[in-house]
Structures are given as C-alpha cells and as structure tokens.
Amino acid sequence: MSKSLLAEQPLRAVPALKPIDTPKTCVEPGEDYRRLAERRHAWSAWPDGDTVTGPPLRSSSMSIKGKPTSFDIAYLAGVSQPTVSRALRGSPLVNEETRNRILDIARQLNYKVDKNASSLRSQQSGTIALLLFEDPTPDDSHINPFFLSMLGSITRACARRGFDLLVSFQQLSNDWHRDYEDSNKADGLILLGYGDYLDYREKLEKLSAQGTHFVRWGAVMEGQPGVSIGCDNYQGGLDITAHLLAKGHTQIAFLGDTSESCPELRDRFLGYQQALKNAGIDTAPALQVDAITTENSGYESLRELLSRGVAFDAIFGASDAIAIGAMRALLEHGYKIPSEIAVAGFDDIPLASYVNPPLTTVLQDTKQAGELLVDNLLRLIHNEPVVSTTIAPRLIVRRSCGG
Amino acid sequence: MSKSLLAEQPLRAVPALKPIDTPKTCVEPGEDYRRLAERRHAWSAWPDGDTVTGPPLRSSSMSIKGKPTSFDIAYLAGVSQPTVSRALRGSPLVNEETRNRILDIARQLNYKVDKNASSLRSQQSGTIALLLFEDPTPDDSHINPFFLSMLGSITRACARRGFDLLVSFQQLSNDWHRDYEDSNKADGLILLGYGDYLDYREKLEKLSAQGTHFVRWGAVMEGQPGVSIGCDNYQGGLDITAHLLAKGHTQIAFLGDTSESCPELRDRFLGYQQALKNAGIDTAPALQVDAITTENSGYESLRELLSRGVAFDAIFGASDAIAIGAMRALLEHGYKIPSEIAVAGFDDIPLASYVNPPLTTVLQDTKQAGELLVDNLLRLIHNEPVVSTTIAPRLIVRRSCGG
DNA sequence: CTGAAAGCGCTTACAG
DNA sequence: CTGAAAGCGCTTACAG
C-alpha cells in the first residue's frame, strides 16, 4: 500500500515513533499509470477527508489520506507523474489545459512539492545559509545590532528571490562543523561577523579550496580568498574625520584596533590618518587606543586614553558600539558632549539616534548590502563571474560633534 | 559510472548548468558490495585528489572525485553501505572497531551525510522554521527589537538541540504560501510577531486543523488553537502599575490597544486596571489611548492624550516602543520626565536603558522564552503532551518613574 | 506535448 | 553485528 493511503496511520504521525515501511505499489510491465493509480486508490477505504471533484474523474468524489504526492495528483488528473512535476514547475512543455487541471487539483489537495525529494534529485536546495560569527561576545549577550540589521535585510533579499534562509550562529573558533553546503542543505553560504581576521582567513581559504560557494561581509582587500562585500571603510573614516576637522576639532583620538586582525577598523583608521594628513596634522600615536566592537571595550579604551594624559577634543569610535561606550565613560568623568569633547561613530545602528546626544556617525546601507550579498552569492552558485565590491558610506550628522 | 567518479565533471559543477544523468552501477544478483564497490572504483581514473589510506584497502592510496557518498565510505571500509549509515548515526548495533574505521575514513574524505536524502527517507528534517510576522511595519524599517532578541535566543536554543533554523519574514496578511512543514523542509513552526489577533487566529485554526506542529509566542488564553508561550502580561501590567502607584502617581494613563485584536496589550491593560482597583482608584476611560507597538504610534497616542485635556502624572506605555514614542512627545511638549510625568514601558528592549531618562519597564525573559518555544515544539513533534505556558515578568526599575 | 524508466543518497524493516 | 532489498518523492534524460 502506498503510504499516503494508510488509513490506519494517524495524520502526520512522527515516523520516528511509528516506523512504517511498507512496499509501495509496483508498476507491472505494460501497466499504465492510470491503472496503477486506480489500484493504489482502490485499496484505500476513503473514510473521510478533503473532497475533490476534478474534470476527468471516474467517481465524483474521493479523498486522500496523509500528504498527497505527485502520483496522487497524476491519478486524479489522468496524466503521468512526470507531467505533474513539469506542470507544477511551470514547464512550457505542458499543454495549458492539462497544466490548469493539474494546478487546480494540486490546490484542492493542498499539495506541496516535497523539498527533500526535489532537492535530492535536482541537487539544488533553494536555500542559503547565513553563518553569524560572534567571537567577541560568545555569551548570551545581545548580538551586535548592526548584524541584526544585516540579518533582516538578507532575509528579505532571499525571500524576494525565492530562496529560504538558514540561520546559524557560530563561534569563529568553531570548526564550522555543520557544513551546510556539503550536506546539500544549502546552495551557498553568507558569512557575517567580527573576529580575528587572521584566524578567519584560514577558514576562508579552506572553504575556497573546497569549492564552497560563499560571500562574506567585511573588509575588501587584494588577494583575499573568495568574494567579499564591504563598506568603503577608508572613505568612511576619511569623511567623518574631515567632518570633525571642519567642526574645528584637531586633537582627534581614534578608538579601535588597527592591527591586521581587524581590517575593517584598520581601513577606517587609514582614512582617519589621511584626513588628518590632508589637514596638515600629524597623527599622534598616543591618540590611538585599541578597542573591539563592543560597548565595554569602547568604555575601557576611553579610560585608557584618559590615563595617558594626552589632550584631545574629539573621539572617533571605530564603531558605534565603541563610540557609545566611550560616551558613557566621558559622561561619567564629567565631560560635556559635544561642547568639551565631540564624539563620532561608525555603522549607524538604531541606538545611535537615541543616545544623548544623538551620535554623528557613518551609515552602512544594510539594505543594499544584503541585496549585494545575496545577488553575488546567487551569481557564484550559477557560475557567473563575481567580484568583490564596496558600498559607499554616508555621513549621518547628529549632535554629538557639535552644531 | 557513478556520478561521484566522473572525472570530467568539474568539481561542484552546478547541475542546472551541466545536467548529468548517467545510470549508476547496478548490483548483479549475487554480487556482493565489495565487488560492486571495486567495480565502481575501478572505472575511474583516480587522476588526483585527496589521498586516503585506510586499514583494509587493497591499494595503499586512492582518490575520489566529487562529493563522497556512503557507498564510497563503504567500499573503503570494506563493509556494506547500510553499515556505514548505522555507524555514522551512532547506532549501537555496529561493532566498535568497524565504527571507528568508518568514522576515520569519513573524516578523511570530509564526508557529510546528504541531508536531503536522509530527510526524504526518514521524513524528518532536523529543521525548524521561524515565521516572523510584522504587519504593523510592512516596509523595510527596522524590525521590532524585541523580536530580534527572540530570534537570537531561538537560534541558539535550536543549535543547542542540533536543529537548524529557517527564518522567514511574513506579512500576516499573506497566505503563508511557502508551507515549510508541508513541503517537509521543517518539522515544525514557531510563530512570532504582532498583528491583528482575530486575523491571526483564523490561520492558527487552519494550521491546527491541518495537523501542523507549531507553537506561537503571544497571549496565552483559554480555548486557543495550538500551543502558546507568552509572558504573564496581566501580572506584568499589574506590577508596573503598582510600582507607579508606589511612587505616588495616581493619574496613570495607559497607551495601548485594549481590543480583542491585541490580547497581549489587553492583558497588560487588565493588570493595570486591577492594580488601580487594588489601590481604590477608578479607571478613567479618558486616560486610555489606543496604540500599536511602534514608536510613532506611541508618539501619536500621547498627542491624542494631551488633546483630550485630561490631567495625568504618569504614562504606562503598553510596550517600550510606545513608551519611547510617548517620551519623545512629552519632551517635545516641554514636560520633564520623571519629575512632571513618570513613564513606564513593557518588554525591556535594549534601547530602554539608553533613552533619557532610562526607561523603567517589564522584562520578558527572551532567553527563557526561546528555550520554551523550541522545547515545546520538539515535544509536539515527538507527540508528547504540551500545554500553553506563561513566563514570569520582571520589573526593571530605572529612572523614568522617579527615584 | 507526454510517458516509461532511472536515479538522487540515504534509512529502514527484514533476515541471518 | 551485518547485508540485501526496498523505498522516500521527486526530476531528468530519452524516446515517441
């Protein structure tokens, strides 16, 4: 008996609990689909269920237990199962009248193509996996809101293209054990997150060598493995530093890691240096303090800066989280923002407009970023040429750098 | 030839572009797996690739092109393919030595079980789908941060249980067309989001009737279809209103929709009413203004309240978004918070601690909520008994209601 | 435009 | 503890 006809089987029974493995009806040589389907359907008791009345049916009403398959549709439509498959996928090969009949029946039975079967056969899953790395905050604290925003835009971009999105949080230190593409659960990967780039890079090279389809959000550099999409961090750093200079600040501290481990922050730093250079100002090493993208790190880095005893009249936090942490430290120490110290950030997370005073920062367009990431990944999957790209930053002026 | 041995096929070619459908080697009756595997492997040229040296191999080094299958592992381990399958799933039936040999080879080949095949056969996907409804904000604006926080905790809860998470944004008005469970892409659904409950409820009943496994986050009420997990909104509303009363406020306005469409806000309102009653205070209808959970709606509702000309000394925003919008309106109108007007919210979104003054609110423990949602859904999937549950709210006292 | 046949790569009774 | 056989529900050449 076909599984879909097992009247005894409770609707949607969980296979793990009630294993069933009865042989399915076989086609005798020479027997046609019509007769097969009839035999399949004749065996069941049709006790109840949805009522279907399609054009070419022998009996005017019949029912199907359990999830209908394409064979059930085929029987009811009086066609072969492959024709059903073609019709449902919109193949132009199928006669329009036939197609409509099939679609109609499928709708009535609430038929859904089994994704596992179609993915297995076609070797395409219609799914993208998003791996979110969050090494700086391995605890259950809040995820960086910038990535949350990216997640939102990626989800929407996938949906618009008819792809599903698998979301997975990973420690950068993990082995990325659950390899979504190798297990055929996803056609490609989007990598998102902060962490030690040197560590990260090794894994990227591995992925690249394996031929995995992936794009990552992050610094765009020469000779990187794979495809990267990122903000033009250099330009953003330059723009906001120029803004601080234009507001009359000259002793601008930079809070952020400038090592190879954080190429994004490093690029922002290089932009900062260039802006100063353009203004004829030397970069004072004492005005740079390492920090990673968390509020606490920003807070600590400002205290470190204060302890150095160097004079400064402005802060450029390499990310909003750093800048907001620094603001907290400044306020605690009695500084007035922006009248005594100006503060600027980078990212334009939602919080930036709510802190007091509202934070002047650099917007990274997450919507565009999500679109680009998904588009480029799909290109990779289709073996089309893809190049790493940067998106343009945009200065968002609020009150933290003065009127 | 087996697909995995097609030397001409480029590594990871995309099937859509290079369709290949060559027959696979057949077992002649009486022929054993060993011989089959040898024939399969003998056909290939072994030009290059990973080198494997397992214990019982004839040749000391051989390579496999493309993704290895369980048949490849079986050949190399000198066992049948089902034994490989058992060993990899940790079946106790497999001899330990055999298992280790198999695991070793699988590791060397970087073998990953094909999820589509295993899900198809076992009818279990090991995946949960999260449907996020966001009807009040159908544009590309920011997702409600409370749901983002839930998303994070749900993702982690799934990962801890070895489940993958499919994320999908839906309009409540949609037909939820892509039915993840019916297409066997997911074993169950988690529903999350705001929207008109009456609308929503219809769909829940449909899902329930179809036998879909789902749990939702939201108001827990008698006679609801399916399983709900939610905060004890009544208690939370009562607690925070009692707090406002204890701070000496007696004319407390409630901003939030109290209709059947928003049972969560309604429950908070009922708690608010009860707290006032306990204090011997009548609820003035003029002190209640409808609002949905967005900042703009909160802003507008406060302006509506002001236009009514009723006296009030405190605001209970039925959600943080509403409260924060109301704060903005109050500040614009020159009111001092909390000295002139106290403000309280509900949710404890990350922003709550950053607004000025920091917002006193009710915490909904998203971590616990995520765990409960996932646990209960898994119980449903395993046909274990499940009941709707509320989680306890927790008062978070900050400065917006006065010292 | 349609159908018969094969096969995607697993898991699951069943038999020994 | 292991293997031979069947089958999950599709899609894809192939032939007409």
Automatic annotation (TrEMBL), chains A, B:
Signal peptide: none annotated. The keyword Transcription regulation applies. GO terms for molecular function: DNA-binding transcription factor activity; transcription cis-regulatory region binding. Residues 68-122 form the HTH lacI-type domain. SMART domains: HTH_LACI (SM00354). Keywords: DNA-binding, Transcription, Transcription regulation. It comes from the Bacteria. CDD domains: HTH_LacI (cd01392), PBP1_CelR (cd06295). InterPro entries: HTH_LacI (IPR000843), LacI/GalR-like_sensor (IPR046335), Lambda_DNA-bd_dom_sf (IPR010982), Peripla_BP_I (IPR028082). This is LacI family transcriptional regulator. It comes from Permianibacter aggregans.
